[in-house]
TrEMBL record:
Protein name: Uncharacterized protein
Source organism, top-level taxon: Eukaryota
Length: 45
């Protein structure tokens, strides 16, 4: 029983880390997509 509990807690930790990592990536991509059109517009003018 203890082993199972430990494994579950580890899985939860991994899931939490993965979610944090994914959200960070998502935020980074959002910033990039926000910035890129701005630069493209500047180049055109």
């Amino acid at each position: 029983m203890l082993m199972k509990k430990e494994v579950i807690s580890m899985n939860v930790k991994l899931m939490f880390l993965r979610m944090r990592w994914i959200s960070q990536l998502h935020n980074h991509n959002h910033l990039e997509t926000k910035m890129i059109p701005h630069f493209q517009r500047r180049k055109k003018f």
